[in-house]
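Hi F.,

I've been meaning to write this up properly since the lab meeting, where we talked about keeping a consistent format for the predictions we share between groups. The idea is simple: the sequence comes first, exactly as it goes in, then the structure tokens exactly as they come out, then a line or two of notes. No screenshots and no reformatting. I'm using this chain as the first example so we have something concrete to point to.
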Amino acid sequence: MTHREEIRPDIDDGIDRKVLAQLRARFLRVNGGRLQRAMQALSTRQQLVLKLLPLLLHVNHPLLPGYVSATTPAGLCGYEPDADTLAEAQRLTRSFTYKARRGHPALPLHGLFLMGSLGTVAQAELSDMDLWVCHAPELDAQALAELRRKCDLLESWAASQGAEAHCFLVDPARFTAGAREAQLSSDDCGTTQHYLLLDEFYRTAIWLGGRTPLWWLVPVYEEARYAEYCHTLLSKRFVRADEVLDLGHLAQIPPGEFIGAGMWQLYKGIESPYKSVLKLLLTEVYASEHPRVECLALRFKQAVFANRLDLDELDPYVMVYRRLEEYLDARGERERLELIRRCLYLKVNKKLSSPPRNRRKSWQRLLLERLTGAWQWDARQLATLDSRSQWKVRQVGAERRLLVNELTYSYRFLSQFARSQQAVSSLNSRDLGVLGRRLYAAFERKAGKVEFINPGIAPDLGEDSLTLVHCANVDNPQDSQWALFHGNLNAQEWPDFAPLKRTRALIELLAWCHRNGVIDASTRLSLHPGGSDLGEFELNNLLSSLQQAIPLPLPPVAESALLQANAPREVLLLVNVGRDPLRQHSQMNVHMTSERTDALGYAGVRDNLVLSLDQVSLNSWNELLVNRYDGPHALLDCLRDYLNSLPADGPRPRLRVRCFCRNRATAIAERVEQLFADVLANFSGAQRDRYLLQVQQRYHLLELSPGQVSHTALDNLPALLDQLGTARPGYSPLRLDRHALEGEDLALILPLGRADCLQVFYRLHGDQAELTVLDEHNALWRQRLPFHDEQSLLTPLQRFLQSLLYRRNAMLALDEPLPPAPLDVLYYQVLPAAPQRALRLEPRTAPEAAVSHPFYDVQAIVEPHEGSRAQVTLYCNHREFSELEYGADLYHAVARHILAQRSGNARYPCYLTDLDLSRVLGGGQIQSIHYLHYKARLETALNQALQNA
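Output, unedited:
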């Protein structure tokens, strides 16, 4: 036959049965050639499986593989085994005798097809056999269950022969209507890509027996009226109905299928990009032609009608390549075309740079040689691709860039196509979002993220020998860096080589090596520590810690994880990497001993032994992140960021803390781990909890508000007292670190804070006493006063607090169902008296003033005035003294009046007994700390005037 013998049947002019028979013969000729090619690449036992499968589905024999029962559906329409097949069956069991079933009108199996890469240029030793078992629509559930069981047994038998077979039951009537319940190939993405799956079936399937596809006989130009054409063929008996099966047409492909197929290939491409890029780009080609899509199956059919039966050019993978080449050439995208060529070459997996086995070239190798010759690939390029199993960091990094670009471009194209076609359902929209997150997690660069460079490109990036160098910058130590070199280089050699990787921090570099498998158990590492304190012992332990905390390979990310924001899953804290916190003592060979062993306040000088932290975290999206914390607030900054990264609900990450520095490593790691555990135990998320930590002489106050944790550094105790004395919007518990405020009475007082309670503490300091109050929001107020006796010390404060409570209660609504509880007032003495170390608190009863010693009432009313200045009016035993009358001389006038009331003109202190701030701080409920601050300020001014009067 020549190319001039193109068949163009015209239904309107009548159809010649001989022409239809000629068409069917052409398809069967291509089919036979593909089947022969498939057999050539199979082992003897695999060939046996493929040869016997039609017979084993055609018969039920108790001693043959696949037998379930005598009633199991069996019998393949029109199938008659040849003598070789029967001989192979009799080798399995000599008792088998075949009985022909010619003329049986109702055989339950209508067709058997082999689908996938068998018989193509990409067939490999491990290629599986996807078999479509097309059955009669009228089979009931029990019959189908038995048929499924028969297929399962055949799959098991095939596996015993070294063949991986998958049988898929297909009801042609339901399939044509678009209904199917299960996947129909081992590479099937689900039920949404009906037409694209059918396209793949028509251009790759090898017919093994039964009826042949009716689609073969419908010309491409009649595809749009496929149903009408088929009706004519069958109704006018040009074709007998029991000779064909109908799986449908390819006249139109809904745009939603391109989205579904693209998402599936992108999903697979994240792990194995070479396998997916070809199909992914084919989906792009189809989508770009929508709605006039000329799918490859139609091109295949047109070639058969035109009598172009070259098996090489009709090879499914070659057809895909030709279509992609045509598309990319037209767009001038040479880099993408080269990538596609490499993908096809690696898929075929015939190493052209080395001679073939037995010096005989397979048809696959000959075809690949012709293709690469047309691509003008030289021997060096072939050798590079053939050595992919030995590719290391440099080659993989370059290839990754191209593959990631392709996958990212495809995702953007897919998203844009979905929007332009308005073809995104709510389900697809969610799937696109999840897929976008998968791509982001796998490939997107961001600060601190360890880049994964080997998504299925090379099997092993492990290096035999590497050199790790700390490159110090003498002029600017902050610009120091770590570099990794290939091979074993000495100090004179490494400056002349380009490193594989540079990073500012060592752990960032080691994490990169671990994540990408660059360093494995057999790697020999040479170390040049430079100005760092890193040694071989610490380096080996750091690598072991990474391997234990982040075991590889990482488990797949579940879709449920991608529907949520990412959250840390594993966290490794490495303290003082390459740093000796007692370096000066190590250099002098001095070993320090001290009773103060806290790593955050070590020895008498209270040294902080936590100099730096490197946090390595693996999140729920499998992103590996490294953050380095250095400087005076390294620990607090790390703790803050860790707490802010925790999810509002859900499991907390597993935390490991390790330290391998030269001095006190175990104690340092335990202290940091202990601190994190203590803070987490108080991180309830229900209230604005606070945590107080002391590092060296400084205090750090953590505000534990979920998602907004912050810390304030306070240089000394007075600064801490000022901070603790600020008003708060509500009750805020304060937890103390186990080593904070050692020896201070505040270490006893602060943990006692209670909501809805005023607590008064006093401690004697010789002829003075220190009063401390924790108010209902746990704000702290402190004042030092002269001490004569407990009565004169506490009674003025008690009277002031009683008036405060009276004013507070006067503003409460009494008719509320649950009115606020009244504030309790409790008293404690701190013992023993100073200067001894405070050890305990003892409760005290509230003081009671004797009736024979009435107190002098001094009331203050504070009101807003111009600007920020407040205006004060004082009442002494109800006599008014206002700034309107006395101006700047107010306090002196009051002092003279008080002294005039005292016998002997005594100048002992005067205390406020009542204070009104309602106009200054608004009409709402005012916190007690406001009153106490104003009280202290006014009393100081008044008592200074008393002393000067």
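Notes:
The chain has 28 helices and 27 strands.
The mean pLDDT is 89.

If this format works for you, I'll send the rest the same way.

G.
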